[in-house]
Design a protein that fits this description.
The complex is a heterodimer of chains A (238) and B (229). By secondary structure, chain A is mostly helical. Chain A contains 11 helices and no strands. The N and C termini of chain A lie far apart (47 Å). Chain B has one domain: MetI-like fold (Orthogonal Bundle). Chain B has helices at 7-40, 44-58, 62-83, 93-119, 122-130, 135-165, 177-188, 191-220. In chain B, 38% of the residues are buried. The chains are: A mainly alpha (238), B mainly alpha (229).
Chain lengths: 238, 229
C-alpha cells in the first residue's frame, strides 16, 4: 500500500510526467462541463417551462433523449460512433476534433449535464409561487423583467439543493472519461491496477479521492445554501 | 436488413441488460429498506453503520465502486480458498454484477425512502393519532399516501439511474447490449448505427418505466396547486 502511494501519488493527483492526469484531470473535466452546461441550461429551462409548445417541445425532446440514455452510450456514440461517419471523416476540422477522446468526453458531459440542469431549473421555474408571478404582472413588469427580477432569482435559489446533487453526479460521471482514454482519476487507477495487480488498493485510493472531493463539494454547497436560502431555513433558538 | 444479421445478438444483449437491471433493483430495494429502517431506528450503533454505508457509497462514483468491488471480490475469494488449500472458486460474473449494483444502489434507495418519511410534516401523524386513529391506521391512511408523493419521484429516478448504470456492465466483461453493439459495430465499421440502436433501446426502457409509473405519481399528487406561467 505505502509503496503504491509512494510510486504513484503524482499520477493520482495531477500529472503522469507528460500530461495532467488523475484528480486534476477529473476536476478540469468537471469545471468545463459544468460551466458550459450551466450557461446552456438557463435559456433552455426558460424555453422548457414556457407555455408556447414550439419552444418547450424541442427542449423537452433534447432533455428526454439525454436523460433517457446512459452517459456511457452517449460517449460511445460521440467517440466511436461519429468517427465512423463519412461526413465526419471528410471534414478535417470535425475529424480532428472528434478524434480526441478529451473533446468527445467534454461534449458528452456538457450535453448530459445541460439536459439534467435544464430539467432542474425548469422544475424550479414552474414551481414559482403563483402569488409572486401574479404580483409581478400586476405591477406591470414585462416578461423579461419578470424573469430577471422575480422568477429566476428565486427559482435558482430553490434549485440549489437539486443542482448541487447534479454537480456531484457530474463529478462521478466524469469517471466514464477513462473509456475514451482520457487520463482521469479512474484511468490512473485502472493503469495502476494493471501494473501492480493491487486491485483493492489501486481503486481504493481513487475512491477515497472521489469521496474527499464529494465531501468538499457538499460542504461548499451547504455553505451556499446557508447564504442564499437563509430565508427558507427553520429558525434556530440559541 | 438494417441490423445486418446482428438483431439476435443485440436482442440477447438487451435481455441481459434488462435482467441485470431488474435483479439489481430487487436487491437495492431490499438493502434500501433495511438501511433506511436502521437509520431511522433509535439504536445509535446500527444507525451509525447505516449512515456510514449510505454516505460513503453515495460519495464514490458507481463505476469506480463497480470495478473496485467486482474485481476485489474474486481476489478476496482466491486468497481465502488459497489459505484453506481449496480449489479456486470462480464467481459467476452475472451474480457478482447484480450484487455489486444492488449494494451500490441500496444506499440511494435508503436515502429516498428515509427522506420521504421525514418529508411528511410531524403534525399530520400527531393529528391522526389525536383524533383516535390507531398507529397502523394512521400510517396507512395519513403517512403512507403523503410519503409516496415525496418518494415516488425519487424512486422513479433511482430506478432510471440504476437502469442506465446497468449499461456499464460490459466494462465488467458481461455480454450485454453495449458489448453486442461494439462487436457488431467493429465487424461492420458502422459504430454510429449500432450505438444509436443501443441508445434507442435504453430510451424505450426508460420511456416504458416512466409511462408505467406516471399514473401512480398523478394519483399521489392529487390536489397540489401550481402557478400559471
Amino acid at each position: 500500500m505505502m509503496e503504491l502511494i509512494h510510486a504513484y501519488w503524482r499520477n493520482y493527483l495531477w500529472s503522469d510526467g507528460y500530461v495532467i492526469s488523475g484528480l486534476a484531470m477529473t476536476l478540469w473535466l468537471l469545471v468545463i462541463a459544468c460551466t458550459i452546461g450551466f450557461c446552456l441550461a438557463i435559456p433552455l429551462a426558460i424555453a422548457r417551462a414556457s407555455e408556447r409548445s414550439w419552444l418547450a417541445k424541442p427542449v423537452w425532446l433534447f432533455t428526454y433523449v439525454f436523460r433517457g440514455t446512459p452517459l456511457f452510450v452517449q460517449l460511445l456514440l460521440i467517440y466511436s460512433g461519429l468517427g465512423s461517419l463519412r461526413a465526419i471523416q471528410a471534414s478535417p476540422l470535425l475529424w480532428d476534433f472528434f478524434r480526441e477522446g478529451f473533446n468527445c468526453t467534454i461534449v458528452a458531459l456538457t450535453l448530459n449535464t445541460a439536459a439534467y440542469s435544464t430539467e432542474i431549473f425548469a422544475g424550479a421555474i414552474e414551481a414559482s409561487p403563483y402569488g409572486e408571478v401574479e404580483a409581478g404582472r400586476a405591477i406591470g413588469m414585462s416578461t423579461w423583467k419578470l424573469y430577471r427580477r422575480i422568477i429566476l432569482p428565486s427559482a435558482l435559489r430553490r434549485a440549489l439543493p437539486a443542482y448541487s446533487n447534479e454537480v456531484i453526479f457530474m463529478l462521478h460521471a466524469t469517471s466514464v472519461a477513462f473509456t475514451a482514454t482520457v487520463p482521469d482519476l479512474l484511468k490512473v487507477a485502472v493503469d495502476v491496477n494493471a501494473a501492480t495487480f493491487m486491485t483493492f488498493e489501486a481503486y481504493g485510493i481513487a475512491a477515497l479521492l472521489y469521496l474527499a472531493v464529494t465531501f468538499l463539494l457538499v460542504g461548499a454547497f451547504r455553505a451556499a445554501e446557508r447564504r442564499w436560502l437563509a430565508y427558507l431555513q427553520p429558525l434556530h433558538h440559541h | 436488413m438494417l441490423l445486418q444479421g446482428y438483431g439476435t445478438l443485440l436482442a440477447a444483449g438487451a435481455l441481459l441488460t434488462l435482467k441485470v437491471a431488474l435483479l439489481s433493483l430487487l436487491a437495492a430495494f431490499v438493502i434500501g429498506i433495511a438501511a433506511a429502517s436502521l437509520k431511522l431506528s433509535r439504536q445509535s450503533a446500527a444507525a451509525a453503520i447505516a449512515t456510514a454505508y449510505t454516505t460513503v457509497i453515495r460519495g464514490i462514483p458507481d463505476l469506480v465502486l463497480m470495478l473496485l468491488i467486482y474485481y476485489s471480490l474474486q481476489i478476496w475469494l482466491n486468497d481465502w480458498t488459497d489459505s484453506l488449500h481449496l480449489a479456486q472458486i470462480d464467481i459467476d460474473p452475472f451474480a457478482a454484477a447484480v450484487l455489486t449494483l444492488g449494494f451500490i444502489y441500496g444506499a440511494y434507495f435508503a436515502e429516498t425512502l428515509r427522506g420521504a418519511f421525514l418529508s411528511v410534516p410531524r403534525g399530520q401523524m400527531d393529528a391522526a393519532l389525536a383524533i383516535g386513529m390507531k398507529r397502523q391506521q394512521a400510517f396507512r391512511r395519513i403517512l403512507f399516501p403523503q410519503m409516496m408523493r415525496f418518494a415516488l419521484p425519487g424512486l422513479t429516478n433511482n430506478w432510471l439511474v440504476l437502469l442506465k448504470s446497468a449499461g456499464l456492465v460490459s466494462l465488467l466483461g458481461l455480454d450485454d447490449l453495449v458489448h453486442a453493439a461494439r462487436q457488431a459495430g467493429n465487424a461492420t465499421a458502422q459504430q454510429f448505427l449500432f450505438y444509436t440502436v443501443v441508445a434507442l433501446v435504453f430510451l424505450a426502457f426508460t420511456t416504458i418505466s416512466q409511462l408505467a409509473l406516471r399514473p401512480l405519481q398523478r394519483a399521489y399528487s392529487h390536489g397540489v396547486r401550481k402557478a400559471q406561467l
